[in-house]
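Sample 1 of the test manifest.
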Amino acid sequence: MVNLKINGQDVQAREGITVLQAAQQVGVTIPTLCEHPDLKSYGGCRLCVVDVKGARNPMASCTLPVTEGMEVVTHSPGIEKTRKTILEMLVSNYYDAGYVNGQKRETQLMRWVNHYEVDVKTNMAPAPRYAVNSDPNPFVWVDMNKCIQCTRCVRACTDIQGRFVWGMAERGINTHPVSGANTDMLTARCESCGACVAYCPTGALDNKMSMGAGEPDKVVMTTCGYCGVGCQYELNVKDNKVIRVTSTEKAPVNGNHLCVKGRYGYDFIHHPERILKPQVRRYLLEGKKKELKGSPWDWVETDWDTALGITSQKLAGIKKEFGADSIGVLTSAKCTNEENYLMNKFTRQVLGTNNIDHCARL
Ligand code: SF4
Ligand code: SF4
Ligand code: FES
């Protein structure tokens, strides 16, 4: 353990952690932008600067390891002024059409801008420099006018998703992320997991499906039904409609990470063609014979008892006429383990065949 002082308070911290982490452990909040606990520290934005006794200049606490006898001041008039100046400089290279139009969304950058009372309208870049919605990716909205070059997208895609889609291009004030060799995201092997969106602190990367949807009335934590991993996420609900899915560090299995299905595959919930009741072919419901010509083939809604009754009759009839091995069963990764177990039992013991497989093996 290392002994140090933070704002005059004696603190014991594990060797190797940063001043930022030591401060967080004793309840001191230091503002950050480029730092995220899931990502390797980068030390790019400088918002987390602190005074260290004996150091000539303020130092970035997110990359500064604790050392024995260190004395740190996290909040002083000088440090707060420096942070405000840093935010003004970041905002001077930032342009948000939504803000200009009075539709500002709460982002991490905007939280600190408001906290330090930075006047965005007077400090913001005079005009956009990049096209808004510049990438054809169906899920990720790209507006590099709002980028502050924190590289969180680059680190998320590289270190968490392992796709290496984003990299930083150009120099100085023109530095900005590009996908691949300045191609579109999908050409650069993006699999639309949305991790870069989740970690972007400014809205430069955003969820295309949710643009203009506003803020939710409530947020409901739930478990994804797409596969057996058991990822959890938050359904953002407005007027009884899911407008967005957000990942959360509170999810024990997956943290902030999700795949494309969990993050963006929710439009079926309110789809007008969603099937909400069991359906059977009309000729089955009417007890008629299947004929290639002239049979009433259209689907008809019915109740579960009728649908299951017809299914069991047909299965029993096929087994009697052609034998159990003429039937095959395919189960789904969307079922729970228990449901798949039951299908296994049903197939082998009720139907009497070993013809069962699972979509995850296909
Ligand atoms: S959506 Fe996922 S794979 Fe695509 S660029 Fe972002 S992090 Fe990388
Ligand atoms: S797009 Fe977002 S996450 Fe990526 S560098 Fe810009 S501000 Fe940071
Ligand atoms: S949060 Fe420390 S330098 Fe950006």
